[in-house]
Amino acid sequence: EPPVTETTAQRAIDGKTKPLGALGALEPCAIRLALLQQTLAPRIDHARICVFGADHGIAEEGVSAYPRAVTAEMMRNFARGGAAINVLARTNDTDVEVIDVGVDADLSALSSLRHAKVRHGSRNMLREAALSEDELAQALEVGASAVRRAVRAGMDVVGLGEMGIGNTTAAAALLSALTGRAPELTVGAGTGVHGEALTHKRDVVTRALALHGSRRAAQSARECLRRVGGLELAAMAGATLEASRHPVVLLVDGFISTVSVLAAAYMAEESAEGSSTLLRRVFLSHRSTEVGHVIAIEALAALSGRALRPLLELDMRLGEGSGAVLTVPLLRAAAAIMSDMATFAEAGVSAGEQAPSHEDSGR
Amino acid sequence: EPPVTETTAQRAIDGKTKPLGALGALEPCAIRLALLQQTLAPRIDHARICVFGADHGIAEEGVSAYPRAVTAEMMRNFARGGAAINVLARTNDTDVEVIDVGVDADLSALSSLRHAKVRHGSRNMLREAALSEDELAQALEVGASAVRRAVRAGMDVVGLGEMGIGNTTAAAALLSALTGRAPELTVGAGTGVHGEALTHKRDVVTRALALHGSRRAAQSARECLRRVGGLELAAMAGATLEASRHPVVLLVDGFISTVSVLAAAYMAEESAEGSSTLLRRVFLSHRSTEVGHVIAIEALAALSGRALRPLLELDMRLGEGSGAVLTVPLLRAAAAIMSDMATFAEAGVSAGEQAPSHEDSGR
């Protein structure tokens, strides 16, 4: 069979019984799926969200509206199936795998979790690097092995999710370290930090950046991740790097996971490999209201050399992979348009007069 | 059991294990479902899209990029399951019922369609009223009976869809007649009408309005629908009026269906009943790129006394109920959040310090 190209995929979608372009954002999505799976009959049958949980040393600095204990409490909630991600996965026919990569509590009794704890939380980045080189390598591998398990289980989509009190702070620091953008642009309210508490959170990130340096100062993306990242951030970066070796969709959630994917993309860019194979797998699910998300998306778009727009804009800011799981039906829909819709020729429908642009409904 | 109020529903959602408001637009949606179904455990199990097909006399004036024959051809495509709505309904676990309310062709051999033809297309509104009073009454009843069938079949959601060459012209004329807004604001590209053809389409609508009058000139919404509407527009209005008698979600698609719902809402407003019961059923699915959609949404919001925002913004403009069907998973998700998520108390998760506003992910 000849390879599927952008041109053949575009021609296939344009032959379907609908005005050209009338399915909007689903159409480029369908084309990307056809290219990734190298077939004009792409399928999204099986999807899994991998939720990585970890604690953060920086939480000692009072950067979250919730106590640190909530990370472990929410892991128990995941294990019992009561959290948003569990509920949303059930209504969207999607698997969930919850992985303890670094929660500061003994969760070993919870049999429905995956146990891969590297450390009881990252170190406080105001005093030292969040992770040692060895811890970073282990956390990257935890993410990579989650993707390999998902691929072995026949997943077409691997979605990223996370849980970790303090992780909007770590993600903001990492985003600033990766892009050179000021903390004013990357630090947001997280779970609900406003006013003086938000000023304090920005100050914490500013101090962490002063201590640890950035890519602007010629520090590698990997070293940024080690110094100001965290265990679940590293696991999601490892998952992203591994995903580039398989024809799977890597479905990004909100702010935290987008920053992790960005770190992985820079790591790939800094290697012989480059980032283009990786970026072909990346699908953005939703636009979070967390202030730094737009910065992370722009940076990823700049690497991709094309505009990136999340499919959903629902003003969500929960994490856990909740935006990713809600996007699975749209991926299934996009694949099905390409695979299952009749063409004008097959259906005996008259083509219109016009070309490239049309509108709503009717015809 | 005490009735479910806005306050009890809001309290229920705020008790779930997530930062307050972190599920964004899904939360008000969950609250509306709880109020409509009068339970704190709402369910969206069964959904059906009713697709009403009809031709338009105004299509003689060359207002569409597609020949009139396409209406019948697409009805055959629906019957064989090859159109976008069929494909999307399958991936979203949703029923489709396609109803011939006025296609200008003999479709009686197609057993998978519902046959309720009132007339072989509406009349040309540049010469006379699109429908007689009797035809309007019949078309309204076709829509009403579709909703009754859906309710008897146990549907929690009835979505609106349509197919009809020329129907963006009729919908634009109806929207202008209902709201008094100029054709420049209501007439758009439809399936792909640009430049001189678009100017011609606007001119056709302007002439139709001059002939038939508007609500501004004290004409009833029903009379506007009769004079410048069409058979599928009337059927969707009839479906909307009937939906107000049942505790179902009425899921609106794009431009055409929103205009039909608006006509029904004004009809209810002009009757002893008022429009509030009806408007409680109305859920907007997606924002179409057709120019007049925003006008129709604003008018509906003004009647509702609250902002209305479609859940999806995917730059779609296909009709057929394609936006509605893509929204069904989001309704299921919203219901499940309210029904199935654990509370902080149930899950033993510590509550945060803060109140009303938070951000993405982490915590």
From TrEMBL, chains A, B:
This is Nicotinate-nucleotide--dimethylbenzimidazole phosphoribosyltransferase. Its EC number is 2.4.2.21. Keywords: Cobalamin biosynthesis, Glycosyltransferase, Transferase. One of its GO terms (molecular function) is nicotinate-nucleotide-dimethylbenzimidazole phosphoribosyltransferase activity. It comes from the Bacteria. It catalyses: 5,6-dimethylbenzimidazole + nicotinate beta-D-ribonucleotide = alpha-ribazole 5'-phosphate + nicotinate + H(+). It is an enzyme of class 2 (transferase).
